[in-house]
Design a protein that fits this description.
By secondary structure, the protein is an alpha/beta fold. It contains 16 helices and 12 strands. Helix 11 links the parallel strand 11 and strand 12. The chain starts with about 30 loop residues before the first strand and ends with a helix. The structure holds D-xylose (XLS) and calcium ion (CA) (2 copies). The site of one calcium ion has 6 residues, from helix 9.
Length: about 450
Amino acid sequence: MSEYFKGIGNISYEGSKSDNPLSYKYYNPEEVVAGKTMRDHFKFGLSYWHTLCAEGVDMFGEGTADKSFGAACAMDHAKHKVHACFELLGKMDIDYFCFHDRDVAPEGATLAESNKNLDIIVDEIEGAMKQSGKKLLWGTANLFSNKRFVHGAGTAPNADVFAYAAAQIKKALEVTVRLGGTGYTFWGGREGYETLLNTKMGFELDNMARLMHMAVEYGRKIGFTGDFYIEPKPKEPMKHQYDFDAATAHAFLQKYGLMGDFKLNIEANHATLAGHSFQHELMYARENGLLGSIDANTGDLLLGWDTDQFPTSIYEAAFCMLEVLKAGGFTTGGLNFDAKARRGSFDPEDIFLSYISGIDAYALGLKIAAKIIEDGRIDKFVEDRYASYKTGIGADIVSGKVGFVELEKYAIEMGEVATNKSGRQEYLESLLNQIIIG
Ligand code: XLS
Ligand code: CA
Ligand code: CA
C-alpha cells in the first residue's frame, strides 16, 4: 500500500512543553477527565469532503492543494482517497469519519452506475475499516451539488427530483448500515428558497417530512438502529433554508411526528450564521433531548459566510463541551471536524497541523468544562438565581396550582416587587477566567 503523507509519522501526545508542531500538546487520548477517557468523550471524526476532496477552490480562484493522490482516473482516484483517508485516521489517531455518497465515489452517467461505483468503493472502505478498527460516525447523501437539485431535493417543485433524491438516500442508508454508521444526517443545502414569489412553502415542508418518514421507515426496515439527524443551517447556498436553526428544526420534527427518530447535528459555523452562539444552539438541543452530534468548526466574523475553519477558541470549545457533559456525553454522535485548512495552507502537512489545532483546542475545552462543573460556582449562581420558584408563589406557579386570578390577588397584596437581584454578568465572566487559569 502506498504511503501518501511521507515523512509524517504518527501524531502522539507530547504535552504542552513540546515544540514539535506535529504532536498533540493537550489531547492525551487515554487521560481520564470527568470519569471518561478523552478518546471516549470526543469520538473525534474526520470529514471526508474537506479532508480528502477540497482543494481550496473558492468563488474567485482555483484549487491550491493537490489532492489527486497520484491517481490516473476517477475510480482510481476514489480508491486512493480511501487509503489516504485511513492513513490520516491512523497517523492522527482519529477513530471516526463521516462522508457523503459523492465524496467517496464519482457520480456515473446513470443512477445505477453511480450506485455501482459506490459499491466498489464501499468494498474498499469496508476492508480498510476491518483492518484498522476505524468507524463510520454518520453517512449522508449529497443532494445539493448536481444541477438536478437546483430547486431542492425533498422540497423540489419537480416530483422526479423528489424521486431521485429518495433513491439516492435509500442507497446512502444502505451503505451507512453496511458500514455500521450510528447516524444518518440530513443537511438541506438546497431545501429552501430564493424567492417566495415562486414557492409553496407549506407544501415543500410537507414533502420534506414525507421524505424523512420514508427514510425512517426504510432505515428501520434494513436494520438502522442509530439516530437520524437534521443539521440546521439558515442560509448558504439558498437565501433561506428551512432547517434554519435548532428551534426551527425542533418545531418541524414535532409538527410532523419525527421526534424519537431524529436528533440534531449542530454545527458551530451554522449557529453563528443563524445569529446565535454555538452554545445557544447546543443548549437548546440539550434541553430538548435533541443533542445528537456536533460538527466542530468556526466561521470568521469579519467574513460572515460558512468558512468551515478549524476551531481554536478554547472558550468556544469549553462552552461546547460543557453542553456535551451536561447532556451526559454522546450516544450515537461524536465530534466531527467539518473543517478545512485555509486556501493558503495548501501543504499536505497543513492537514495534520489543522486537525492538531482543533483537537488540542477541544482537549483544553473539555478540561475547562470539567473544571467549571467541578468548581460549581457558576452552576450554583444559576440555581440561586431561580430560587424563588422553589418555594411560595414560585413553587405554586411551577406546579400549576395557581392561575391569573390567584396571581392577581397575590400581586395586589404584594404591592411592588421588593427585590430584583443583579445578574452579575461581569463577575461571572471574570470568574470563568479565574476557573480557566486557576
Ligand atoms: C454544509 C454542511 C455539510 C453537512 C453535510 O454547510 O456543513 O457539509 O455537514 O452535508
Ligand atoms: Ca456540517
Ligand atoms: Ca459549514
